[in-house]
Amino acid sequence: MSNTRLPAPSFRATDFQAAFGVSRETLDRLAAYEALLRKWNPAINLVARSTLDDVWERHFADSAQLFALLPEGTRVLVDLGSGAGFPGLVLAILGVPEVHLIESDGRKAAFLREVARVTGAPATVHAQRAEQAEAPPADAVSARALADLSALLPLAARFLRPGGICLFPKGRTAADELTRARDSWTMRVEEFPSRTDPSGALLRLSEIAPRGMQIG
Ligand SMILES: C[S@@+](CC[C@H](N)C(=O)[O-])C[C@H]1O[C@@H](n2cnc3c(N)ncnc32)[C@H](O)[C@@H]1O
User: Fold this and answer.
1) Which of 88, 105, 182, 189 is the most buried (most CB within 10 A)?
2) What whole-number distance in Å separates Cα of residue 191 and Cα of residue 167?
3) Is the bond into 7 cis (omega within 30 degrees of 0)?
4) Is the beta carbon of 173 within 6 A of some atom in ligand 1?
5) Is 62 exposed, middle or buried (0-12, 13-18, 19+ CB in 10 A)?
6) 85 CA to middle of ligand 1, Å?
7) Residues marked as binding for S-adenosyl-L-methionine?
8) What is the DSSP string of 19-77?
9) CA torsion 152→158→161→164, rounded to 10°?
10) What ipTM was assigned to the predicted interfaces of this complex?
11) Disulfide connectivity?
12) Which residues of the chain have a pLDDT value below 70?
């Protein structure tokens, strides 16, 4: 995918295509996803109504920008607290081969299954809490807007293979969350600017281990 800056405002499908260089087929799958989101949202509140007219930027582009941060050869991605599918389901549509979406709300999980069915995305939905769900060892774990880093890391550690990485988009609290998390965890931290949230940061964490334990 190319890495041009996002145009604004009124960011639409054509802008998404220009920004990420995706194929016509991928764009069509995302358009089908958007249509389902609009259809289901009034009944089950998948995303804030105020963001529905801005899905291509606030949700699709915000998720898609993580694709370029995945290590080469990433096969299995586990997305925690997927909600309406951000970022995990977008990353499956963009080409991650095996994505596991973990979402404890049964109605949201049903929506995720329907989007995966309609778009053919390689996503398996687990209608369970992340504390209980099982998935194959993950090359990468993602989560957006689920929890503070100190709560996220033990959840992510349940799924990560040795040497796996975490991708967490964070808002302006990123630095404070990192400081607190470092009390209990050692990790390599890389921070990238968010292309959709000027006050946010994309955290890529690797070499993650509880303090006092050797890295696997
Ligand atoms: C604030 S929403 C964020 C959804 C999505 N990641 C996004 O950014 O749009 C958090 C989601 O996580 C789910 N959730 C909360 N705790 C969870 C847990 N322990 N395991 C799995 N899902 C959980 C909620 O049902 C909700 O859909």
Assistant:
1) 88
2) 10
3) no
4) no
5) buried
6) 10
7) 81, 86, 130-131, 144
8) HH---HHHHHHHHHHHHHHHHHHHHH--S-GGGGGGHIIIIIIHHHTTGGGSPTT--EE
9) 0
10) 0.99
11) none
12) 1-9, 213-216
Q: Report residue 119 as tokens.
A: 């778009």
Pairing of strands 201-210, 138-143: unpaired
Neighbouring C-beta atoms of residue 35, cutoff 10 Å? 12
Residue-level pLDDT at 210: 96
CB 188 within 8 A of CB 203: no
Do 114 and 176 meet the contact criterion of CB atoms below 8 Å apart? no
Reported pTM: 0.94
Give the nearest ligand 1 atom to 130 CA: 20
CA 202–ligand 1 middle distance (angstroms): 18
